[in-house]
């Protein structure tokens, strides 16, 4: 059988685009299908725009909160959301244009605009045209999960909130995960009143209690109202605003604001691909099942990025590309099982994680040692006037190797890589304990902390 392409990639996300470029460089003919803007979630509605807004919000916060350090502004600090939005759009458009240009200018790549659906294991329909390929790579990403009671309600998501040109008066945020916290703090700093509701008993459900509590303290200091153990079940229009109904043991069963952001998790874009009819299995939440090299239950089809449920981040999607690419073109093969979990939430100060935390270690019954330090004891944090947060590092008793770290504090998203790299190197903690770091940095305290490890009881 002759195919139109050697490979078809569905989606121009964080794995699909570099995979197309690599295949083309290696002489393969590639068709890449995109139903929306090239670049996927990260570029258009995720990391890029939110981190641009986080930077605007931090400038606003510093401008409004520096008089205690002797920096006084005689006059108002005002927020121009239209200008902030334009700056974000300029950054996105630069990224998007360079991706589009790369895909359109490469003679081995055909960019096909439209929504892909499988006809069979080698054929895909897009706008009534059928395209065939020997191998198919699915990189379709995900979208916001909307709880049932909110259908038909005028809510915002991570996509639509980025289109606002006026600051909401009172933004109700449902969900105290990454998206809820990043947007909640940023819009507070832009001037909105913020209420964050979560059905769980803490913010950021995957973090240790002390970390989650410290984040709650930081948010409360910025007058962000937090309601935990509050399951939001429905919402309706109320005058010019919106009323959210809450199932809770304490507090009011309803809350009214001017705007509502749903940040209640994400679901994979897999239900309308036609996977069931071709024999590509998904799990009960719709994530495509993959093996250690990201192959699906069909031998010639692979799934990369958020849709395989193995990551949920840009760096994990890009690593999925690296895994698949290594099996296609490289000598050293990479596998999913080589990956060490790491991520950051870009609140201010950021929280960054690698490997296991204290709750994971206790649950697994691993014998481990802990080094812990509040940011308030760190010289550089004091000098910066940014002493909120906490550092925790975990080492396995038996092997002396790092199990993980949880860092909440100024610059944590950068110096967590000290531990990430040691974990990838498989190094003993003593190698880092005996290193000399630059003064004055937060990093310089990491070796000192490792001199004071204590067993977790
Ligand atoms: C608000 C927000 C902030 C985030 N911030 C961060 C962060 O700071 N750091 C981080 O690491 N991660 C962050 N993420 C997560 C990150 O954006 C994703 O993990 C990342 O984009 C990887 O996605 P992907 O490669 O799986 O696919 P995506 O980037 O989602 O791309 C999938 C593409 O497939 C297309 N598509 C879907 N179905 C079809 C179809 N049937 N036919 C054709 N095309 C189709 C879509 O239009 C889309 O362009 C954030 C996410 C959100 C929502
Ligand atoms: N910094 C980053 O890397 C970053 C930033 C944003 C998003 N992301 C990605 O996007 C994903 C989704 O983020 P998210 O914050 O939407 O999801 P999440 O799963 O992290 O958090 C959702 C929260 O909503 C709560 N919730 C759900 N339904 C509720 C209801 N009816 N009432 C009250 N609370 C409810 C849950 O308890 C949970 O705490 C992340 O897992 C991550 O993969 C990453």
Automatic annotation (TrEMBL):
<dbReference type="InterPro" id="IPR036188">
    <property type="entry name" value="FAD/NAD-bd_sf"/>
</dbReference>
<feature type="domain" description="Pyridine nucleotide-disulphide oxidoreductase dimerisation">
    <location>
        <begin position="344"/>
        <end position="449"/>
    </location>
</feature>
<comment type="similarity">
    <text>Belongs to the class-I pyridine nucleotide-disulfide oxidoreductase family.</text>
</comment>
<dbReference type="InterPro" id="IPR001100">
    <property type="entry name" value="Pyr_nuc-diS_OxRdtase"/>
</dbReference>
<dbReference type="Pfam" id="PF02852">
    <property type="entry name" value="Pyr_redox_dim"/>
</dbReference>
<dbReference type="Pfam" id="PF07992">
    <property type="entry name" value="Pyr_redox_2"/>
</dbReference>
<keyword id="KW-0285">Flavoprotein</keyword>
<keyword id="KW-0274">FAD</keyword>
<dbReference type="InterPro" id="IPR004099">
    <property type="entry name" value="Pyr_nucl-diS_OxRdtase_dimer"/>
</dbReference>
<protein>
    <submittedName>
        <fullName>FAD-containing oxidoreductase</fullName>
    </submittedName>
</protein>
<dbReference type="InterPro" id="IPR016156">
    <property type="entry name" value="FAD/NAD-linked_Rdtase_dimer_sf"/>
</dbReference>
<dbReference type="InterPro" id="IPR023753">
    <property type="entry name" value="FAD/NAD-binding_dom"/>
</dbReference>
<feature type="domain" description="FAD/NAD(P)-binding">
    <location>
        <begin position="6"/>
        <end position="316"/>
    </location>
</feature>
């Amino acid at each position: 059988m002759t195919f139109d392409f050697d490979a078809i990639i569905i989606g121009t996300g964080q794995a699909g685009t570099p995979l197309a470029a690599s295949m083309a460089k290696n002489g393969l003919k590639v068709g890449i299908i995109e139903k929306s803007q090239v670049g996927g979630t990260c570029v258009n509605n995720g990391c890029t725009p939110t981190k641009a807004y986080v930077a605007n919000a931090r400038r606003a916060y510093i401008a409004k909160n520096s008089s205690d350090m002797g920096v006084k502004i005689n006059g108002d600090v005002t927020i121009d959301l239209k200008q902030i939005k334009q700056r974000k759009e300029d950054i996105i458009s630069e990224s998007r244009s360079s991706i589009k240009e790369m895909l359109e200018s490469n003679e081995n790549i055909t960019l096909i605009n439209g929504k892909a659906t499988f006809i069979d294991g080698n054929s895909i329909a897009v706008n009534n045209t059928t395209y065939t390929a020997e191998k198919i790579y699915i990189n379709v990403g995900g979208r916001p999960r909307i709880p049932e009671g909110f259908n038909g309600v005028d809510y915002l998501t991570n996509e639509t909130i980025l289109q606002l040109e006026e600051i909401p008066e009172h933004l109700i945020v449902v969900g105290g995960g990454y998206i809820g916290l990043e947007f909640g703090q940023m819009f507070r700093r832009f001037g909105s009143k913020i209420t964050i509701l979560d059905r769980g008993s803490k913010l950021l459900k995957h973090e240790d209690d002390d970390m989650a509590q410290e984040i709650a303290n930081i948010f409360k200091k910025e007058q962000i109202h937090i309601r935990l153990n509050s399951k939001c079940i429905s919402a309706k229009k109320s005058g010019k605003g919106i009323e959210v109904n809450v199932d809770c043991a304490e507090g009011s069963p309803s809350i009214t604001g001017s705007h509502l952001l749903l940040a209640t998790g994400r679901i994979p874009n897999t239900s309308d691909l036609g996977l069931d009819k071709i024999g590509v299995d998904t799990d009960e939440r719709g994530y495509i099942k993959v093996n250690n090299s990201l192959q699906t239950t069909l031998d010639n089809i692979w799934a990369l990025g958020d849709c395989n449920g193995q990551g949920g981040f840009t760096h994990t999607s890009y690593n999925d590309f690296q895994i698949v690419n290594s099996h296609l073109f490289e000598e050293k093969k990479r596998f999913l099982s080589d990956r060490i979990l790491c991520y950051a939430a870009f609140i201010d100060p950021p929280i960054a994680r690698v490997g296991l935390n204290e709750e994971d270690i206790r649950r697994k019954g691993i014998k481990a040692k802990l080094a812990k330090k509040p940011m308030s004891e760190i010289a550089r944090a004091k000098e910066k006037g940014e002493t909120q947060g906490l550092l925790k590092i975990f080492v396995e008793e038996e092997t002396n190797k790092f199990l993980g770290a949880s860092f909440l504090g100024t610059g944590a998203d950068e110096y967590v890589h000290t531990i990430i790299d040691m974990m990838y190197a498989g190094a003993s903690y003593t190698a880092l304990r005996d290193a000399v770091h630059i003064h004055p940095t937060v990093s310089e305290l990491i070796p000192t902390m490792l001199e004071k490890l204590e067993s977790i009881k």
